[in-house]
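Q: I'm writing up a methods section and want to include an example of the input and output format. Could you take the sequence below and give the corresponding predicted structure tokens, formatted cleanly so I can copy it straight into the document?
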Amino acid sequence: MRHGRSGRFLGDRRSRLGQGGEVALDGLVRAFVGAGGRLVIASHWPVPDDFDATQRLIAGLFSVPPGTATVTALRRSQVKLMDDAKTSHPYYWAAFAVVGDGRSALLQADTARVAERR
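A: Here is the clean output for your methods example:
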């Protein structure tokens, strides 16, 4: 699980079915939102590690300019996976969803300045 200043990311392995068939993702999202999280990026199903699809999707989220809306960053990252023949099937990119304030930026301008100083 990765978390930043404004959101949370629930990895694919944490979204498996819970006991009795209920989806554990729902409980995790509720827990983060209940704890004050304004934004959660979650996976609806376990995405395979084939072709580094999840790693590439997450890297794409953080490669957008500071101030880009999270939903826009996710969409751009998903489109990059769609454009690759190896990961064009929705199984690799459609599992991920933004819950909460998707208009908020994942990367703030002040975050980028701190990263540049390092």
